[in-house]
Amino acid sequence: MHVLVVDNDRDNSDLVYHALNNAGYDVFQAWDVADALQLSRQHPDIGVVITDMRLDHQVTGLEMAEKMRQRLRNGYYILTSGDWDALIPGCPRDMSILRKPYGKADLLCAVRHGATRRLGYVTHALSAAKRRQETALLLA
C-alpha cells in the first residue's frame, strides 16, 4: 500500500518515511501542499496520507485533505500536530488525529488503523471471508 507523508519539517518527514518504509509500506514524501497534490494526481492509489496540521500559512493539513478527497476517493487521512489546540475535536470517518510527540509504535498503529478503515471502504461489497483474507494480507 502507498502512504504519502506531508510535512514541511524534513527531519520529521524523514523519520516517518524510514519507519514506514522499514515496516514494508511504499512511501512518498511531500514537503508542501503543491507537492502533495501533485503526488495525489500522479498516484491515485495512495491509501493513507499522513499530514502535519500546519503546512504553510495558507493551507492547513485539513484543507489539503479536503482537496485530495476528490482524487483519493478511498484514502484515509492522519492529521498530526504538536499544537493540540489546532486539532479538530471530531473527525470525519476517513480521518484520525495523531498528536505529537508520537513514537514509532503509535505511528504504525495509526497507519494500520487507516489501512484497515480504507480496506473497509474499498471492499464493502466483498464477502466477509474475502474481507478477512485481505485484511490479514494488509496487516502482515
Automatic annotation (TrEMBL):
Keywords: Phosphoprotein
InterPro entries membership: CheY-like_superfamily, Sig_transdc_resp-reg_receiver
PROSITE patterns: RESPONSE_REGULATORY
Signal sequence, start to end: none
4-aspartylphosphate PTM positions: D52
Domain Response regulatory: 2-115
Transmembrane annotation, as ranges: none
Name listed for the protein in its UniProt record: Response regulator
Organism listed in the record: Dyella caseinilytica
